[in-house]
Amino acid sequence: MSIVELRVPDLGDFKDVTVVDVMARSGERVSVEDALITLETDKASMDVPATVTGVIERIHVKKGDRVSKGTLIATVRTEEVEQTTVVAVPETAGDREQPYVETVTLGDEARVRTSGTPKAAPAAAAKQPAASPAAQPSAPAAEQPAARPAKRAPEPAFDVVVLGAGPGGYTAAFRAADLGLRVALVERSPTLGGVCLNVGCIPSKALLHAARVIEEAHSMGAHGLGFGTPSIDRNKLRTWTTQVVTRLTNSLSVLARQRKVEVIQGLGQFVDAHHIEVAQGAKRRVVDFKHAIIASGSEAARLPGLPDDPRIMDSTGALELPEKVKRLLVVGGGIIGLEMACVYDALGTKVTVVELTDDLMPGCDRDLVRPLEKRIRARYEQVLLGTRVSGIEPLRNGLRVSFAGDKAPEPHLYDRVLVAVGRVPNGRNIGAERAGVNVDERGYIHVDAQQRTNVEHIFAIGDVVGAPMLAHKASHEGKVAAEVAAGLKRRFEARVIPSVAYTDPEVAWVGLTEIEAKQKGIDCGKGKFPWLASGRSLALGRDDGFTKLLFDKESHRVLGAGIVGPNAGDLISEAALAIEMGCDAADIGLTIHPHPTLSETVAFAAEAYEGTLTDLYMSKK
Length: 621
Prior knowledge:
By secondary structure, the chain is an alpha/beta fold. It folds into four domains: 2-78, CATH 2.40.50.100; 158-300 and 425-485, FAD/NAD(P)-binding domain (3-Layer(bba) Sandwich), CATH 3.50.50.60; 312-419, 3-Layer(bba) Sandwich (FAD/NAD(P)-binding domain), CATH 3.50.50; 499-610, 2-Layer Sandwich (Enolase-like, domain 1). It is 25% helix and 27% strand. It is built from 14 helices and 32 strands. Strands 11, 12, 13, 14, 15, 16 and 27 form a seven-stranded mixed β-sheet that branches. The protein has a five-stranded parallel β-sheet with strand order 18-25-19-20-21. α4 (201-219) crosses α5. The longest helix has 25 residues, at 234-258. The protein is globular, with a radius of gyration of 31 Å. The two termini are 62 Å apart.
């Protein structure tokens, strides 16, 4: 074991280069080529990697420091790998010699000596007197016991077993297979895709599209296009959403077969650190593996104390579009609840939303939520903030719901209640503790930047490792885990992860929010462009949206973005890329965007910050 100092390499003509990110932490294990810090000049940015494998004793730089060639970055405790080899020595008649043990240090490789004479036997062994003929008669060579090679453990059936076939799970399985590994994908449902594809993201977006068509057709009545009241056939609507889902799940099955990924249907649970038992009815199968990737996802959270009544739904039940829902209560003003509220409102249901906190979509900037809140307050029966459900009484003619809070209304009767108060991870449902994997009291499994759990060959990704619980985050984590399992040097190093509410209007944000900036004391600049000045937005019949960008006041680099309006979820990716690339306001403003589009509002927001915007008059302060 030794201590190695890692220093900044030759940077050419550059000196006093700024440290813009520190990826490594004291106590963390690093391998060769793992990024330690990111440096940035006025020309480019670069990662400085580790040149040894070991555990970091101390990080000697911090974000914002200026460094040059030779600056100490970190001290690392390296570990030599020792391989012990046991060599058999013939016995004497009088007593038995202890086996000769030789220790050979070989770094990352280990060579096992299985026969022959030790290179340097201990002195006692060298001076051992020869046995007398009387004491030990010679035996024919044929009678000498034959040397038996050590038995090798059988190879695991699979290099990688992925537990859970949601977006993170199937991505991990397919990537591992592409890298030449033998892969099994364990899924409890009869189809691949997990909650997201089967009963979450995809069917809900199909229904939201239907809701949007209804609303756009209605709004065009004021502009000379009258379509009359829509005729809604819920059975056909359900069939259509099922067809959308089926096309995607069938495609995943084809992709699995093409990659020779073995799909094992059933409920999987760890038996130990190298075996998973898969149960399907009375059938049991134990699968052994070299690496495992936990992608077990999450399930809808339940409110304690609610009666067991089929009219109380979670988001999966809401997607079934039950008949005769004249009045619906949505418990939870987050993204899932508000999306389903939009669907039912468009289908003609009177909707009430109740949220425990004082704001809809907690954590999102208030100005982004305001256009949505204004629209739904004008359409919905009620929007109750700072209010909780204190009880639900099942009656023959509906569900009588009582409320509590400073502005709580009197009890109301609803045909259905949708509970959408978040999701809880499935970390405690897979027997992870039998594999030695640590699971916290809430069901989360903590991982490092390579998605490793505390058990080195077991990885975890997606909802089960923590917020944000988003399919696109899980997919990227799945690729990292698969590549690390294949021996590649990878880390999950995303600077930002975008969030989208597919409501009407859509709300999307990425990176730093104004709420976070205030909490952290970050003094940032802001550029904002209202969509009432966008020709494309007005042509869509909407003027209630806007685009805003947050900037570092010194460097003018993009720190965060928020967009509200039609297709905001499609537009936010440009801002995410800008943050990842370290773009500043001029980079965005000087990029020619097509006109007339909603995407050009991103450039206009950058120009508004730079003071070069001509599509609005910006008063000089």
